C-alpha cells in the first residue's frame, strides 16, 4: 500500500465445522490493538486485551442484553 513491504494482511479461514475466522494484521495503524470479536448465532463477544475490557451482547427471545466482562492480565 504505502511501502514496498506488506503493510496490511487479511485472511479468512473456514473450518470443517462451519466456523469462520477473519484475521487482520496492519503495520499502518498508529494505535496498538489486540482484539478478538466472536460472532455466534445468539451472541456477539468483543474482547480488548490492550484495555483489558470485554463485553458479551446476547439475544434472548426479543431482548438484547449487554454484559461487561473483565480481562485479567496474568504472568506465565
Keywords:
6 strands; single chain; mainly beta; two-stranded antiparallel ribbon; 76 residues; four-stranded antiparallel β-sheet
Give a structural overview.
By secondary structure, the protein is mainly beta. The chain has strands spanning 8-14, 20-26, 35-39, 43-48, 53-60, 63-70. The strands form two sheets. Strands 3-4-5-6 form a four-stranded antiparallel beta sheet, with no helix packed on it. The chain is extended and about 50 Å long. The mean pLDDT is 86.
Radius of gyration: 16 Å
Order of helices and strands: EEEEEE
* Tally of individual helices: 0
In terms of DSSP E residues, the strand content is over 45%
Protein topology:
Layout: E1 8-14, E2 20-26, E3 35-39, E4 43-48, E5 53-60, E6 63-70
Antiparallel strand pairs: 1-2, 3-4, 4-5, 5-6
State the gist of this model.
With 76 residues, this protein is mainly β.
